[in-house]
């Protein structure tokens, strides 16, 4: 499933990790965001506009990947969705609507 984003989800906890990945030249995903238990890994990341990411739920609980002002993607346990990040430059908070502690920041460069 490919979704056009105008907004994204992540987790609280200790020091967030940043992940910067180059834009894929073959149209494939440049980054995988894991929904593990009640956290996003990574919870902060940066991608180029037009990049594709994969959001993978590797736990047993249903989560969403919801970008503020954008789509709301449900991810059942052990499922993945490819998401097209087609947003202008800037920072976008994301979260899981079911679990308030799951938050993060997507930066489009």
Give an overview in words.
Strand 7 and strand 8 form a beta hairpin. The chain is 0% helix and 51% strand. It is globular, with a radius of gyration of 12 Å. The chain has no helices and eleven strands. The strands form two sheets. Strands 2-5-11-10-7-8 form a six-stranded mixed beta sheet, with no helix packed on it. Strands 1-9-6-3-4 form a five-stranded mixed beta sheet, with no helix packed on it. With 109 residues, the protein is mostly beta strands. It has one domain (2-108): Cupredoxins -  blue copper proteins (Immunoglobulin-like, Sandwich).
Task: Outline the fold blueprint.
Layout: E1 2-4, E2 18-20, E3 29-36, E4 39-41, E5 44-47, E6 51-57, E7 63-67, E8 72-75, E9 79-85, E10 90-95, E11 103-108
Parallel strand pairs: 1-9, 2-5, 3-6, 5-11
Antiparallel strand pairs: 3-4, 6-9, 7-8, 7-10, 10-11
Summarize, please.
By secondary structure, the protein is an all-beta fold.
